[in-house]
Specification:
Elements (H helix, E strand, L loop, with lengths): L1 H22 L1 E5 L14 E5 L10 E6 L2 E9 L5 E4 L2 E4 L2 E3 L13 E3 L7 E5 L9 H4 L2 E2 L3 E10 L5 E2 L4
Length: 164
């Protein structure tokens, strides 16, 4: 009985950590350069699993095939979008992308079908090197694991993500 009393606090700590990682927040490693310069390869970000209301330009983590991808939401359900001469147009209105560095080029393309309910159009900030909705299509809400706006590691970038 003495050992049970001694072990109980450790068991509770482990249980709380598992519950937090399962339902609230968990670290995720950035794999690749598709979000440069906002997020760099091998950075560790904090994924908010509880956040299931997505807005334009939120950075999300979603399941794709056997991995997870990190991209930015550009198009919301019910919208059409296109890029013309590096400018984003949503429902024929120009939308500014303040988070992109000066000189970022997005080649012209059109997504002229309305994005269905519970689907999102996502893109990486590194527009020339990103496997995103231009390649893989729309992302279902059910595949989105959550949002991120905080870098945990490396420590020189610790804190809120600029533009998130």
């Amino acid at each position: 009985m003495k050992y049970v009393k001694e072990l109980l606090p450790y068991v509770l700590i482990i249980l709380v950590v598992v519950l937090i990682r399962t339902f609230i927040v968990t670290p995720v490693r950035v794999n690749g350069k598709s979000m440069d310069p906002t997020l760099e390869n091998n950075e560790i970000v904090l994924l908010k699993k509880y956040d299931k209301s997505f807005d334009r330009f939120d950075i999300v983590v979603f399941d794709y095939e056997d991995s997870h991808l990190i991209k930015r939401i550009v198009g919301l359900p019910g919208e059409t979008l296109y890029y013309y001469k590096n400018d984003l147009y949503i429902n024929d209105e120009k939308v500014k992308e303040d988070f992109l560095p000066e000189g970022t080029e997005t080649y012209d393309f059109v997504w002229d079908t309305k994005i269905p309910e519970d689907y999102y159009f996502v893109m990486g900030d590194n527009r020339e090197n990103s496997t995103d909705s231009r390649v893989i299509g729309l992302v279902a809400k059910e595949d989105i694991r959550g949002t991120t706006n905080f870098v945990l590691f490396p420590f020189n970038r610790f804190g809120n993500i600029k533009g998130a």
